[in-house]
Write a structure and sequence with these properties.
The chain is 73% helix and 0% strand. The protein has six helices and no strands. It has helices spanning 2-15, 25-32, 37-52, 69-85, 87-103, 105-120. The relative contact order is 0.18. Residues 59-66 have low confidence and may be disordered.
Length: 121
């Protein structure tokens, strides 16, 4: 159970990158610094972005302050299940990850910089 709670905390923190508001990288970094950079990057692009980036696909984003973890966690869990069990879904998701890594590169680099700073101090 602890693993699920920790994952939800990570997802919640990373979802803050997808709200229609100014991003506070320092706050997010403080919430996720206990994880490895590889784990954070994987969770961001393979788990959170596929669900939360949809906020920016509308003319007026619906979420501008924060995502409710109880709303997004089941969607992320469903996405992970489909990714692990459906070959065609996995192919599509892997293609989209390339897009997310390109489109959200600056956000990831800024967050990564903040995390590294916190880990080194």
């Amino acid at each position: 159970m602890e693993g699920i709670v920790k994952k939800r905390e990570l997802w919640s923190a990373l979802s803050e990158l997808f709200v229609d508001n100014e991003i506070n990288y320092d706050t997010i970094a403080k919430k996720v610094q206990s994880y490895s950079l590889d784990t954070i990057e994987y969770s961001l692009f393979y788990e959170v972005a596929p669900i939360c980036s949809l906020n920016f696909s509308s003319v007026i984003p619906a979420v501008w302050s924060f995502f409710e973890i109880d709303t997004i966690a089941p969607l992320i869990e469903q996405h992970i299940s489909r990714y692990n069990n459906e070959k065609l879904y996995k192919l599509k998701a892997d293609f989209l990850v390339k897009y997310y890594k390109f489109h959200y590169k600056s956000e990831w680099l800024e967050l990564q910089k903040e995390i590294i700073f916190l880990k080194n101090n």
